[in-house]
Amino acid sequence: MSVLIVSIISTAVLYAVSVLYAAIGEIFSQKAGVMNLGLEGIMLMGAVSGYLVAVHQKNLALALIVVILVGAALGLVFAFVTVTLQADQTVAGMAMLTFGTGLSGFIGNSVAGVNANLAFQSFEIPLLCKIPIIGPSLFDQNILVYAMYIIVPVSMIYIYKTRPGMILRALGENPATLDSAGYNVFALRYGYVIFGSAMTAVSGACVSLAYTNFWSDNMTSGKGWIAVALVVFASWNPVIAVFGALLFGAISVIGVDIQMVSSTLPSQFYSALPYVATIIALIFTTGNFRKKRSAAPAALCIPYDREER
Amino acid sequence: MKKKLLSIILAAALAVSCLAGCGNAANDSSKGSADNEKQTGGATAVSDLKIGEIESYVINDGGWCQATHTGLVNAMEECGIPEENLLTLENIAEDQASVQAAAEQLIDEGCDIIIGASTGYSGYLSDMAADYPDVTFAQWGTETDGLVAYELRSYEAMFVAGYVCELMSQDENTKLGFSASMDEFSVRTAINSYALGAKYANPKATVQVACADTWYDPDKETQCAKSLIDAGIKYMGMEATSPAVAQTCEANGAYCVGYHVDMSQYAPDAVLFSFTWNFAPIFKQIFEDKAAGGEMKSLYYEGGECAQLTEFSDLVPEDIQQKGNELKEKIASGEVQVYAGPLSDDKGNELVAEGQVMDDATILLQDFYVSNVDCAWSK
């Protein structure tokens, strides 16, 4: 039994991390007032660029750097369109989605069906991995998962306990005030959008270089959208996002397990479970339940224009 | 002004990159042959045939579309049809507008045969067939009005796969796994044939099924394989598109039979051998019949070398390899029938009586699981 529990938790953690990079990146971006709906496209670009480097250079560190750079470059384009040109963020996000999906398929053509045989391998952390159940499921993972253990608390502290975090929150609530106080709203938004996009690209690398190890068109199969949903689900809070991601991961893993052990329900029922969970969670996290602490940044999706102050 | 100019340039750049992306949609060849005079009923040279294929995805997807495309290319080579006589349309969605537009484009280019590589096309192509009597619409799947259907007896190879897996696992346990995509008739055929093969090796063998409930999702496929392995299963078959199952097996010390293409390169320590599609002999027959100008069969349903298994890897011991090969020969010669009676389903109903063999129509549209399949939702 404990083997099964370990297996469920460790798979759920692996799944959670592959969407969390994108979700936390998007939290930063949205806290700064820019909504990027093109996560799926950026993830695919991250996945394909990392895989291309893995195939041709056989170097994971280099692959990760390239992934981050590709994500940052796409973030720069997105920031230029939404912050400088003040384009509609929803439309620009859709453009990013189709652009990323198409371009990733195009440049990934040469490595579709090619095996890189190079992935982030899991390794045990001494001592910690000896803890029953938690040890083997949490501390026998790959480096991208361990990095997430640090990223979550750091981003929490950054957003809620530091001065730059306060500025970040103000950026999404009332950029005009920040501008009057002498901060460069445009530069800050550029920075957070680029950071968010780079994190999203790392999510893509989790898919092609850790969770599985191949490249195929559209291989993220909707993870970018789950990340977008997680941001709202988590009320823009990285720690809640962690629980949300784990919940999604666990539900989808358990579905297959129950299906096998004992049940007379059709398999489609289990495939629907994550969506049922989403609806239940949304009931509790939105609407009347959350009226008092509506977490959506007030200036989200509103391009900042100095002349309209 | 500056902003406007910039946005125009940006929009133009985006448009150009979009166009670049869809550049290879149709390998447009000799436009001059548009004056397509076809002799109805009369014979033409095979090498003059022009073939159009409609694919639901890209032709180098490492799976289904690639198999269809490779089959076409090989068959054309054997028939001496020049390469440029093949027109390929990729990424055609399974809706009426897309399918009809694609087919009309191919007919405009003078195609004599149109290959619909996805089951979802059959209804729309069937509607069009009446309007274009000179064009042959060949469609993957079961018999449909106005279409020439093609299918291959994949169950023969799956039977061998189950047999070999059971021989490999015999001394450990009698439970094999099967990582399935959808609960659908063609998938059920694969599961049942695999289970019957296992039973042929060991009457007590059972097969546990995990269903991803999607045609393509590496996450779900990984989870299915993982769940099977957690349940103590060491050998599994699959009907899944991505290499995720094979990689999960390799990471957890289990073994599997690859699917669609040779998957051994993705997981050399887990893939025993792979099930692959070989459409070339069927397409060759379709081309020849079309060129001869006579009546065409409504269903080309072939086995033998069509349902191909790749070479056994070194993971399979020599004596088991030999037994597997012997079984292949016995199936080819008709000595062993996969769906021979007595056969009952998992609820105990009789499917085939002793001494009889299941008919092709039932084999093609299986709505049952055989007795040794352990599939929770079926009970």
Task: Output the keywords.
heterodimer; A: 309 residues; mainly alpha; ABC transporter involved in vitamin B12 uptake, BtuC; two-stranded antiparallel ribbon; 12 helices; 2 strands; B: 379 residues; alpha/beta; Rossmann fold; seven-stranded mixed beta sheet; six-stranded parallel beta sheet; 11 helices; 38% helix; 17% strand; ABC-Purine-Binding (chain B); BMP family ABC transporter substrate-binding protein (chain B); PnrA-like (chain B)
What does this structure look like?
The complex is a heterodimer of chains A (309) and B (379). Chain A is mostly helical and 309 residues long. Chain A contains 12 helices and 2 strands; from the N terminus they run ααααβαβααααααα. Chain A has a two-stranded antiparallel ribbon with strand order 1-2. The mean pLDDT of chain A is 89. Chain B is α/β, with parallel strands linked by helices and 379 residues long. Chain B has 2 domains: 45-152 and 280-302, Rossmann fold (3-Layer(aba) Sandwich), CATH 3.40.50.2300; 154-276 and 339-378, Response regulator (Rossmann fold, 3-Layer(aba) Sandwich), CATH 3.40.50. Chain B has 11 helices and 15 strands. The termini of chain B are far apart. Classes of the chains: A mainly alpha (309), B alpha/beta (379). Chains A and B meet through helix 1, helix 3, helix 4, helix 11 and helix 12 of A and helix 1, strand 7 and helix 7 of B.
